[in-house]
Amino acid sequence: MGLLDNLKAKLGPAKDKVSGLAQQHEDKIQHGLDRAARTVDERTKGKYSDRIQTGTGRAKGAVDRFTHKNGPGPDTGGTTTPPAGPPPAS
């Protein structure tokens, strides 16, 4: 058994636990990502809006794949939805 196999075996339970916590708090994580994106966009005065929107969409996609590891995704041949428009301004 190689080093990577040992690491995967030891980190498996931790990954499952973190995934479970992420599933419980998915709405708070998504809200936090939107809020952070909105704050950064305001502080940069919209100069990097496209990049912020792209990064936020990718982060949300990663959280979605992590919390729904048994559902369809790029690894299982399913499709993912593209990120919605820019974060809501308020």
TrEMBL record:
Compositional bias ranges of the Basic and acidic residues kind: 41-50
Bias (Low complexity) ranges: 71-82
InterPro entries reported in the protein's UniProt record: Antitoxin_Rv0909/MT0933
Domain of life, per lineage: Bacteria
Region feature Disordered, mapped onto this chain: 41-90
Name of protein: Antitoxin
Organism per entry: Streptomyces griseoloalbus
Lineage: Bacteria, Bacillati, Actinomycetota, Actinomycetes, Kitasatosporales
